[in-house]
Amino acid sequence: GKITEEEMRGVPHHNLDVLDPKENYSVALFQKQARAAIEEITARGKLPILCGGTGLYLKACLYDYEFEQDSRELDLSPFEAMDNDALVAYLNEKDPESLKSIHPNNRKRLIRACAIASTGTTKSESIESQKKEMIYDVLLLGLTCERKVLHERINLRVRKMQQKGLKCEMERLLNQ
Question: What angle do the packed helices 166-175 and 147-163 form, to 10 degrees?
Fold first, then answer.
């Protein structure tokens, strides 16, 4: 679903194809790359436009979020061997506040929160210490539509991606 050269219509786009698919990515790395792009664009007297993305990634870029531990540098191995009940118990002891926002079946988030807690500073302490203030002068725009229309558009987009070779691309990436 990545934008094509034709769709770009000559408008410069940033932070596309910056990693090999085998490399790990994190919200902390996204934040660093996005903020660097914003600084570079504004230094040229141009207006950066962020388009799409999840709420977490956009907030990490635009607000004063700080990541003391890049998730790519955390030692997850002690927690990957634990089942979800053990992860919940560990987190309940070390960082019960974070546990309130993590579903017991969301293994990835449980493991990450446990790994952060094991460093001595919990995820909830890190979040609480931040002011949650915008660091840029921003205009936020959001689009909405009826859920039925949204699902129709998503289905159409997936069909187009399939026609353009989504299955072959996924198989190639998995084989790597």
Answer: 70
Q: Which phi and psi angles does 158 have, rounded to 5°? A: -65, -40
Rounded to two decimals, what is the model's pTM?
Answer: 0.70
CA distance 9 to 58: 24
CA distances from 101 to 9, 66, 67, 123, 165 (A): 41, 19, 18, 11, 37
Q: Which residues contact 2 (CB under 8 A, 6 or more apart)?
A: 16
In 3D space, the residue among 133, 173, 163 whose CA is nearest the CA of residue 1 turns out to be 163
HSE-CB for 72 with a 13 A CA cutoff:
9
Per-residue pLDDT reduced to its tens digit, 95-147: 888 888 899 999 988 998 888 888 877 776 777 767 788 999 999 898 899 99
Q: Exposure string (b/e) for 9-43, b if CB count within 10 Å is 16 or more? A: eeeeeeeeeeeeeeeeebbbbbbebbeebbeeeee
Are 128 and 55 contacting, i.e. CB atoms less than 8 angstroms apart? no
DSSP 75: -
